[in-house]
Amino acid sequence: MVDKPHLDEEALAELRDVMEDEFDVLIETYLSDSADRINTLHRALVAEDNEMFTKSIHSFKGSSINIGAPLLGELCLRAECAGRNGHLDEAGQVLDRIESEFRTVSDLFQRLLNA
């Protein structure tokens, strides 16, 4: 796997500067939306719905990269490629890694918010 950090400190510093007092709300919204996206991804896998899976993972990838979670974004890209190629079994395996990385990112964001 590409050696990417859990969080991109530079991107987060820029977001904090731009968002100012709304930074915490942005992070909380990302965490909530991402949990919903993971649930949608599981439903898409169970339904064997490539279109739902690829649309949802694409969105999750973008929001993860934009929020400063590059490793999570990279994992989403891998799952998206697998889904687009019709390999939902492979995408499901990557989803396990995505969930693990999301737990790590969530913990790091919670520490950041509580600092």
UniProtKB/TrEMBL annotation:
Gene3D superfamilies according to UniProt: HPT domain (1.20.120.160)
Superkingdom: Bacteria
* Classification via InterPro entries: HPT_dom_sf, Sig_transdc_His_kin_Hpt_dom
Coiled-coil region(s): none
**What are the UniProt keywords, alphabetically?**
Phosphoprotein, Two-component regulatory system
Q: Which PROSITE patterns match?
A: HPT (PS50894)
Under Pfam families, the record lists: Hpt
Domain HPt: start-end pairs: 19-115
Carries keyword Metal-binding?
no
Modified residue Phosphohistidine is at which positions?
A: H58
Q: What is this protein called?
A: Hpt domain-containing protein
Tell me which species this is from: Marinobacter xestospongiae
What lineage does UniProt assign to this protein's organism? Bacteria, Pseudomonadati, Pseudomonadota, Gammaproteobacteria, Pseudomonadales
